[in-house]
Structures are given as C-alpha cells and as structure tokens.
Amino acid sequence: VLPLYMLTAIESFRAAFYWTNICYHEWGLVVMAILVFPVQKRSYHDISRVVALSDAAVVVVIVCILIILGTEGQNTPDGFTHHSSPPPGAFLSRYNNVSAFLFAYQGQSVFLEMMSEMRDQRNWPKALWLGQSLMIPTYTLTASIGYYLLGDTVPGFLPAALPNNGAKTFINLLLAFHVIVAYLIHNHPLNVGIEMIIFPGAPATQTQHLVISISVLASAYLVANLIPFFSELVGILGAAFGSPIMLFYPPVFYIVGMRSRDVPMSLISKATCGFSLCVLFPFTFVCGLIAAFNALAERWADHSPFDCDLGT
Questions:
Q1: What is the pTM assigned to this prediction?
Q2: Is 60 exceeded by the pLDDT of residue 271?
C-alpha cells in the first residue's frame, strides 16, 4: 500500500502546483525527500500528534472539496449521467470499482500493530468502534455527494475535479500532508517486520533502520512510477490485498479459534464462513486482479512508466 500513498502524494503536489511543468517522477523524488527523516521514527507514539493533525486535515479536505464542487457549477463537466444500476460496458471494465471499495476498508492490515503499541490494549475496541463509526459515514457521504455532483464523470482521484485556483492548492497540500502521514503509519510495521527477519534477536540499530527505511522508500517510489495511475493501482491493491484481508483471513481465524477452544460453530456461522471463503474471496481476488491488470494494460498503451506527463 505504500506505493499508493506515494502516488497520491505525488498527485496532490501536481494538483497543488498545477501551473508548473514538473515531471511526475520528479515530484516522486520530492516526496521521497520529505519522507526520509519522518520514516526514522520507530513507534506510533512518536507520530501520534502528527496523526491527529492528519485526521483533522483530511476532514477539512473532504468538506472543502464537497463545498467547492457544489458551488462551482460552471466548472462541473457537462453531459454526465447517473446510473441506478451498473452502467453498460464490459464486466471487467466496471469491476475495478468493487476493488476500490475493498481497498477503502482494508485498514485492519495495521490494526494488530496499532493495538500492540497501545498503553492500555483494553481500550482497543473503543478506538476501533470510534474510528469505524466516523470512517464509514464519511466514505459513504463523500462518495454519494461526489457522484451526485459529477455523475459518471467523477474521477477516481476526487481533487482532480477541482477548478484551478488557490483553493485547489490549499486542499491538495492538506491532502499531501495527510497521505504522507498515512505512509508513516503503514511504513512502521513493515520496517519492523523486515528488521526482525534480517536482524533477529536484537533491535536494529539506527543505521540499520535508516538503510531499511530508505530501501522501502525507494521501492515504493519505483512501484509508484511503474504503476503511476491512481484508480488502477487502487484496483490492484484492493484485489490482491483487500480481498484476502477482508474475506479470507477473518473466517479462517474464526474457524481456527473456534476449533482451538473446541466450541462448535452454528449453522449460520458455517454458512457465512463458507460463502466468504469459497465464493466471495475467490471471486473478488481473481476477477479483481484480472480487471485491474486489464485496465493497467490499457493505460500503459498511452503512457509508459516514468513518463514526464501522465495526464490527469
């Protein structure tokens, strides 16, 4: 997921400074330079205050985007339509939207790491319920209003729909800050995991951590330039990682947990787990990857990796 955060930060800076001609991969180097020092932080406690500011920033971003899109009617694309059912077209070309939903709700990939660093882990359920109760309505409201205002012309990267002015710069700078912090959140457990594999038995030194964090950062930069398309990368990540995280691991863990405690599963539990494991997971995983790479191939036909101008 780190390449997506880098890609989003790049897109945010490109949109914020829309009057410049800086290449996509050059903005990537800027993002890398910004992240070099923050990625040296080695616990969630070190970035907790920044995370709080990031949460506030994304709320401001969402509110501002929706207000501007609602009031700037003259800048809204003409000729868009609303569909009450899936729009016409090839199945695979439409399926990427499902993978995007899977990606949006795969936050549990870092839940265990967050819980492990809490001072009082008994408060984790409260934190989880609070976070989800805010996230789900926010996602739903943003998507609904964006679709209402722009119909089938709504871009995958919503800030791209903003008119070129000072508000666009302000909003995209806030968004860049938010996704850079999101990178830090997801980068931490990955670095820790790599360090535990390479340097077992003892914590990594600061120099070792520096080498690993920069290597991960460079890898994210490389992938973000190989797949520099927001919607397509979201589709790949949603299918490849969101699908198993949401539809495979939870029922597997539930089944293993019930068996380890020698507790019989109810018929409803068996049916739910079976449907998730045997129907939903393989369908979303296989179809999602095929659809995502099919869309990526179409984009690569027009723009090659490391192109300077990738369009909008």
A1: 0.80
A2: yes
Tokens matching residue 245: 């995280």
Domain ranges of the chain: 2-83+92-302
Query: Measured between alpha carbons, how far is 250 from 9 in angstroms, rounded to an integer?
Result: 31
Q: What is the mean pLDDT of residues 130-158?
A: 82
On whether the CB atoms of residues 163 and 76 are closer than 8 A, the answer is no
Confidence check: pLDDT of 245 > 50:
yes
Q: Output the six-digit token pair for 83.
A: 């569909």
